[in-house]
Amino acid sequence: DLYDLGVLIELFPISRPDQEFDKRKFYDDIVYNQISTDPEAPAPISGPTKASSTGDGISLLNSLLSNINSKAVARRALFSNLPLEIGPGFKISVKGFIMFKRQEPKRSCYVYLAGEKAQIATGVTTELASDTARTVEKVEIKKAYRFGGEQILFNPEEISSLRNFGDPCIRILGFKPISMLPLWANLKPATFIYPSEEDYIGSTRVFAALHAKLLSCQKMGITWFIARKNAAPVLAVLYPGPETLDENGMQILPPGLWLIPLPYADDIRQNPEITTLIRAPEPLIDRMRLVIQQLQLPKAKYDPSKYPNPSLQWHYRILQAMALGEDLPEMPEDKTVPRYRQIDKRAGEYVLDWGRELQAQHEAWLKENSSSSLMSVRGKRAAAGGEGDGDGGAKKKARVEEIDDAGMKKAFADDKVGKLTVAVLKAWLEGKGMDGKGKKGELVDRVTGFFER
To answer: Among 78-87, 246-255, 441-450, which range has the highest average pLDDT?
Structure first.
């Protein structure tokens, strides 16, 4: 009877070293470890637990306590019993769920603390006229749009008709290969849809056939999607998703269809054109490849359930302490902080090798560019000297030395900025759009401050 009501009994078997717990003697008749063979029997809420099947009751108890301490958030339904139009006059009923949503502490009300005791505050909004400060009633407020420099008034019926693009539905317009869907098209969260038998009998069978066909042919549907009444229509992709299982064979996501909104042209930002592309040398890339290989996640997969939000968990712990009259707890463990010791143990030596290779490549680049910049400076000196043969003042002015960014950076690294002349420092600062006035000490401070940022 409990099973028919959706109540599952979970057994905590504890075995002794000399004797294993035998469930066949009594508990196999009342504890369901799998779906019943009776087709009319309801499916269990959760599948069999790995701990109970192995007889490890302690592990199962710890898992149960962990689940109790964690706050389970129900999947929010975006729409219910929405018609999915496959063809003219051919519709089924589906439900849409928001599977991934950011959880954060929410303020349900405001509390007034200035009185003798705390009270829940009730907000009241009042519209006031800007000229007389009198209260404006709702019937006096008109909505208008500006056309041709004039305000055109619309009544509520006209406003609603402007926003009406038809009844809520999902209408399939055609099909395209899945390979045509680029990764950058996923700008908004997708909606998981599942069949419903409430409005159209047989929706589950048709939905399963459509899902299997799209998955086998690697096709996706292009749809016209209106989520609710007066909502703006969007073009969306009907993407077939396979069943997702964990390492224990337990279902994480059931097979179904995902509704992915497609971006409009205005939603896509054009990247700026890259005029000069600086590519790292191959030895440096090879060193970094070893570092990345040592920092791979287990099975190359990110599991968000293993990294709880520390601020949200702290919020729940405070609420628990206030509700149960407990002392305020310490800050919870932040699992999002990187494990620095483990990272250093696995990739520390490779990072140091990469740093030494970077230093060698940088010195080689400085040596190559400093020689070319020195040749350019000598060419300028020669040109300036040839032009100023008849004018002593012009020849004197041509002797002002110049230094490029690489030379100034090397002087900063060698702590030789103070040995440069005032003219060189002033010319370099003015070339960077900085103030070149002042004493030499001030100029040196500006240069060092530039590289220390």
So the answer is: 78-87
